[in-house]
Amino acid sequence: MSRLLILGCGYLGERVAVVWHALGRPVTAVTRSPTRADQWRKRGWTPLIGDVCDPPSLANLPEVDTVLFAIGYDRQAPHNQRAVYVDGLAAVLSVMKQRCRRFLYVSSSGVYGQQDGEWVDEESPCEPTQPGGQLCLEAEGLVHAAFPKPGNGVVLRFAGIYGPGRLLSRVEQLHAGQPLAGRPDAWLNLIHVADGAAAVIAAAEAVTPSGCYLVSDDQPVHRDDYYRYLASLVGAPPPTFDESTPSKRGSGGLNKRCRNTRLHAELLPMLRFQTYREGLTDAVRDFPGRDREGANSSSV
Q1: Which CATH number is 108's domain given?
Q2: CA-wise closest residue to 18 among 160, 151, 193
Q3: Coil, strand, or helix at residue 264?
Q4: Rama region for 178: left / alpha / beta (φ>0; ψ in -120 to 50; rest)
Q5: pTM higher than 0.85, yes or no?
């Protein structure tokens, strides 16, 4: 029976755990929180108390078939991004490279530095300009070095993950008529969290997956179109933009456009939410009356 170990059982990782457990397969998840450990135990998962920034706490990680490393940066934690993305990953790899068959690393489309609306795929040059993208690219190298055999180390370069529970801050901004930072004509590359989890499961189960996949939906979208449609769904005024202030994750350019041809060809022939229109419609379903309740922060 295929066993899964998750480091980073958050917005994405938790959904992977739910699907994996529903398939009748053992799930072990690492957390720093005893409270979360108790919650996971009640759901039938095996919790382990550990911290990637505390290597001795990782000594007893179990032998499994697949590892999912999906740790995001917690700004409330005492460690910097390098300590988590690079040093923490290296600590996990030093233990698990002899204890698993496949290692899945959730990276970011931020590894690309293109800013003029170019199309990118897995073969495009990676010259990131932002610190987060630079660290993710360095981390990818660690995974491939630890698992050089094809199919053993798989990098999943995620576009912006969105879905239920990740829209409130933007919805509040739209309702308040506050300008959004950045250019309205810049491109957004997105993946609904349900399709992101499906991509992880498919990569875990593939016979011989490629070493890298770009996980994005079928239609990059201009920020103006995305937020205009979101506003229409929640009854907010059309968006306005402050182009003098760069967006949180942007550098002032047009961004790139992500092509998901390999994802479709090898892992997911069809996405559940092929574009932002289907995805946003699903993401706001828990808003009572489609108003401003029922979600938390947005990642796009």
Answers
A1: 3.40.50.720
A2: 193
A3: helix
A4: beta
A5: yes
